[in-house]
Each structure stands twice: as structure tokens, then as C-alpha cells.
Write a structure and sequence with these properties.
There is one protein chain. The protein is α+β, with helices and mostly antiparallel strands. The chain has 7 helices and 18 strands. Among the domains are: 84-216, Beta Barrel (L,D-transpeptidase catalytic domain-like); 222-290, no CATH class.
Length: 302
């Protein structure tokens, strides 16, 4: 289920989810799920419109393929929107999500992005075309890597573009569906942006040709929510790969994080819980964490 966003400080937006009564202090904006027999994290991610790596980052230590039935899984269903979010489509590589802003509301969708060697760079472009049931003509670079792929892949269940494609004014780059939904929320594509089939079906009729598409890379996002400052930090690309492979993630400090937090805190900068900021930077849990108490004062019980 997609989450509608509301305005917050500095034109940021966030997507609210129900807050469970027993939510621990670190994860106060989110939901919980009891694992059903036979479920894995890929199933749970798609059922709740989440990216796979984000779900893994929020649930370190849980076997993604064989989570115990009855185990509690944190669902990171609250998302702080990137700073400076404007109208149109915004692709945030830093949290592997697509933000659609129109009519004063924001919808957010998990996306699959390019793997190593195929990453997009921040830029501004536009939707140059729209196609239902698209054919796929693999570029020469992909056919060189996979020579068994035909020159034209017709529409249908074997087409990696799925049933809908938003073609961007970038060379061979599209926002599209997929016949491999397990790749959503992962670094698995050749540069294109994959959505769950149900998400691209909902988005496609709402996006006109010519709509602006802004590609950014903001792994750290901040917003004031209910009188408290919240921080959401996502793994870097190599950290995401390590998390997916269940390996120790390399450390990647964010040199500008203190300045970002201080600027967002403004007059409440003295109330920032820097221990929590340091924890979020080190662990990158991919969920919002509260770094001031409600009302902008530091909670002395921490």
C-alpha cells in the first residue's frame, strides 16, 4: 500500500504509518508483521510495498529466506521525503524510492536501480514517451553481455519491461514494470528503474509525457514530525550489497551529516541527541529515528 505524504519543515514531506503501541524507541514510525509459515522477506516486502534491501536493513539478523514463523518483522513504512522535493517525479538513488508529487500530495514507491557499473548519476530529465505492453530492444551493451537475448523481445511475460514503460529523455533509460519483481529494492538493473507491476500500473496513467524527472542521491533525510526532528539514513551501494549478501557492511561516514542535522534543527540544535545521530550513521537502519524529543527538547532519559 502506498503512503500519502504531508508537508514538513523546509518543504520536506513524509509518509505516515500507524505507530504500534509496543514500538521500541529506535523505530517509532512504522508497523510490524508476524511472519506467516512459508513467507520470506521478498514476499513481505512486496506485500507492503517496500524495497527488499530496506526491509533487510531494518531487520538485521533475520534470515531473509527462512524467517521463523511467528517472528516479528519491522516494516519501514514511514519515509521522509528528500530535501527540496519538487513537482513531478523524483528518483532518489540514496533510498531506492520514487516520489510522485502532484496536486500537493506525494506518493512513494520502491524501485530497483542499477548495479555496479550501471549506476545513474544525479540529473534532471523528463518523460519522453509512454508505452503500454512495450517491446524491448536490448541495447548493444546488454546483448554483448548476454548474446542469447534476441534483438527484439515482444510484449508478454518474458519481457523485462513488464506491461508499462515511461521512457526518459536519457539514453535507453526507462521507469518500467518488471517480470522479476524480486529485483525491486535492489541494485540489480542495467540502469533502468524497476517498479512492482502493481505500482507502475497505478503510476502510469497519472504521468503525462513531458513531466519533469529529477534524479538525486540523498541517503540521509531529515524532517520535523509532530514537534520532533527525525533522521532517516540508508545504506550506500556497497553496504546494500553487503546487507543483501548477509556480510558485514563497510563503514561509510557522511562528512556533511553534522551540518545537515544542525541546519535542520535550527534553534533546537542544542537539543539534538548526537549519540542517536552517530548510531544511525553507523548502522544505517533505513528507518526514521527520532533525534530530539517532541517539542525540540532533549529527552534526558536516553
Amino acid at each position: 500500500m502506498r503512503r500519502a505524504a504531508a508537508a514538513a519543515l523546509a518543504a520536506a514531506a513524509f509518509v505516515r504509518a500507524a505507530v504500534a503501541a509496543d514500538t521500541p524507541s529506535v523505530v517509532e514510525m512504522g508497523e510490524y508483521h508476524r511472519v506467516l509459515p512459508g513467507e520470506n522477506l521478498l514476499d513481505i516486502a512486496r506485500a507492503h510495498d517496500l524495497g527488499y534491501v530496506q526491509l533487510m536493513a531494518a531487520n538485521r539478523g533475520i534470515d531473509p529466506w527462512l524467517p521463523p514463523a511467528g517472528a516479528t518483522v519491522v516494516l519501514p513504512t514511514t519515509h521522509i521525503a528528500p530535501a527540496g522535493l519538487g513537482s513531478g517525479l523524483t528518483v532518489n538513488l540514496g533510498d531506492m524510492r520514487l516520489y510522485f508529487t502532484a496536486g500537493g500530495s506525494v506518493d512513494s514507491f520502491p524501485i530497483g536501480i542499477g548495479r555496479d557499473g550501471w549506476q545513474l548519476q544525479p540529473t534532471v530529465t523528463r518523460v519522453a514517451g509512454k508505452r503500454r505492453h512495450p517491446q524491448w530492444r536490448p541495447p548493444a551493451s546488454i546483448r554483448a553481455e548476454k548474446p542469447w537475448i534476441p534483438e527484439v523481445v515482444p510484449a508478454g511475460p518474458d519481457n523485462p519491461l513488464g506491461d508499462y514503460s515511461l521512457d526518459l529523455a536519457l539514453d535507453e533509460i526507462r521507469i518500467h514494470g518488471t517480470n522479476l519483481p524480486d529485483g525491486v529494492g535492489r541494485r540489480a538493473s542495467h540502469g533502468c528503474l524497476r517498479l512492482y507491476p502493481e505500482d507502475i500500473a497505478a503510476l502510469f496513467p497519472r504521468v503525462p509525457i513531458g513531466m519533469a524527472v529529477t534524479i538525486i542521491d540523498q541517503p540521509a533525510k531529515l524532517a520535523w514530525i509532530d514537534g520532533a526532528l527525525w533522521l532517516e539514513i540508508h545504506p550506500t551501494g556497497d553496504q546494500a550489497d553487503a546487507i543483501e549478501n548477509r556480510q558485514p557492511a563497510p563503514a561509510h561516514p557522511l562528512p556533511a551529516l553534522k551540518a545537515l542535522v544542525t541546519a535542520a534543527a535550527g534553534a533546537s540544535a542544542a537539543a539534538v541527541d548526537w549519540t542517536m545521530v552517530d548510531w544511525a550513521e553507523a548502522t544505517r537502519p533505513a528507518v526514521p529515528v527520532r533525534i530530539t524529543a517532541p517539542g525540540g527538547t532533549l529527552d534526558s532519559s536516553r
